[in-house]
Design brief:
This protein is an all-alpha fold and about 130 residues long. It contains 5 helices and no strands. The radius of gyration is 14 Å and the shape is globular.
Length: about 130
């Protein structure tokens, strides 16, 4: 199992300070750690850079990120997720790690990325993301 260590660094996205051991930014929710390609299936690896930015596990921070994004960024987000075959992406997400008490950072980030992509899709269509 790959172990991630927090960086205790300034957030690359919002510029705010985060304490030692932080894996995600406490201010905006983005991932401060690198996500390991070896932890995901080969077909999903291309999503990891986007998952680091958009795979925000906190609903409020993720909503704010999508709401604040421009149309070009939302289109790229949706297109990247749509480019991965459903069997590869959702097959992995529905696999054994789905019931893990401690899923990997990569699993959490990609799961949240799919939620961000769906929110982006709804926003682009002019529909609210909450029913």
């Amino acid at each position: 199992m790959l172990m991630h260590m927090g960086t205790g660094q300034t957030c690359w996205s919002c510029g705010r300070d985060n304490g030692d051991g932080a894996r995600t930014c406490g201010w905006c929710g983005v991932w401060l750690i690198e996500l390991y390609p070896e932890a995901v299936p080969p077909a999903v690896r291309s999503l990891l850079p986007l998952a680091r930015r958009w795979g925000i596990s906190d609903d409020g921070y993720r909503d704010a990120a999508v709401a604040g994004a421009d149309a070009e960024a939302l289109a790229a987000l949706v297109a990247a997720v749509d480019a991965i075959g459903d069997a590869a992406l959702y097959g992995w997400l529905a696999g054994p790690e789905a019931s893990s008490a401690r899923p990997s950072a990569e699993y959490v980030a990609v799961t949240a990325l799919t939620m961000a992509a769906e929110q982006a899709r709804l926003r682009r269509e002019g529909r609210p993301s909450d029913p």
